[in-house]
Amino acid sequence: MTTMAVLPGANREALARQLQEARVRTLLLIEPLTEEELRAQHDPLMSPIIWDLGHIAHFEELWLTRNLDGPIEFVEMPGLFNPFEHPRSERGRLRLPNVRECLEVMDQIRRRVMERLESADWDASNPLLQGGYVYNMVLQHEYQHNETMLQTLQLKQGRHYTPVQRFEPVTRGGAGVAPVSPEDIIRFAGGEVEVGTSDRSAAYDNERSRHTVYLPPFWIDRYPVTNADYAGFIAAGGYTTRKYWSDAGWAWVAETGAQAPMYWDWRDGGWHTRSMDRSAPVEPSHPVCHVCYHEAEAFARFAGKRLPTEFEWEAAASWDASTHTKVTYPWGEQLPSRTIANIDQLSFGTAPVGSYEQNVSPLGCYGMIGDVWEWTSSDFRPYPGFQSFPYAEYSEAFFGAEYKVLRGGSWATRPGAVRNTFRNWDYPVRRQIFSGFRCALDD
Ligand SMILES: [Fe+2]
Known about the structure:
- This protein is an alpha+beta fold.
- 29% of the residues lie in helices and 15% in strands.
């Protein structure tokens, strides 16, 4: 027997508002783009933006109409927008709809989703609906594709992407104005800590379940590694010194000829970089961004340190050793916003480390959420007792040693898609993502 209940009006309104807000942002990001720019494949690493748009809509249709109507036997995404049928590098050759058609489809699907939300009984026994899970999943999916679109827009060929709306990130307070010392490293006393979450309303399957792990004592940087730190590594011959690199890392250097983070170029006697449409000398006090795992690992070795494991990272972001409790965000339980951390996209770049005074963890680490995703040394693996939900292609298909875990979220991450337990993963050679790191050290 199923328990049928009507979704309370307040929740329904909140969900409708959030869906609407997510869409407003998606459309804001594409507003400056021409039809041609939306349909072009700017880089083999990324989809044409029009594909992301179609995929966002069809994912929403799949989960908020068809799969909700049960019996729960999940159907597949229509072929054109199924990421597993079409790898990114091929998506530029697909017969994609034009922009008008695509926007119409997005609207039609959204209308059906809203009708479903208004009229449907809320079947409390449906695990997709518990705690509004499936709505949160679809929202996070759109947020995550927004960040993917920003990676594409940063890579974009031709004229640079100029945002229609932006806010300047906070650039003072904390350590933002003072040089950061590499000795600014904090000791974690070790012991048993809780990692992961058992939340079923918003967390993804790969974040579950909350469980206890033992961590030996370790040290972790108070701030992410800055551009100044990283420029020091380059100046010291970092890219030409074999001993800093793993075998795979050294092979990557040889193959790519990399000599600096992506988007850096040396001119007029200094490093310059570009973030979206703004090109400027590299800001020494900002966290380094657009480095791959191999570069992060090599820097750490150069500095006499190492990368943290994902659990060390999570403990440093969330564990309050004085009370043996865990916080959802480094600063506590207050929902993320752009006044607390450099997140939510519209700053279109990083801020000096330590700028956000509230963005400090119980241990004393700054900026663990926001600015840049942080590489960890961990492979992407399931937690004990992992259960795939609601579909294996979100996490399970990616488990293994091929991918490294990143934590924390970047300036391009929306507030609804960050938390201390959130796990991102990518290939160790990827650096079009908004990725940086901080180092750790054995006791
Ligand atoms: Fe997707």
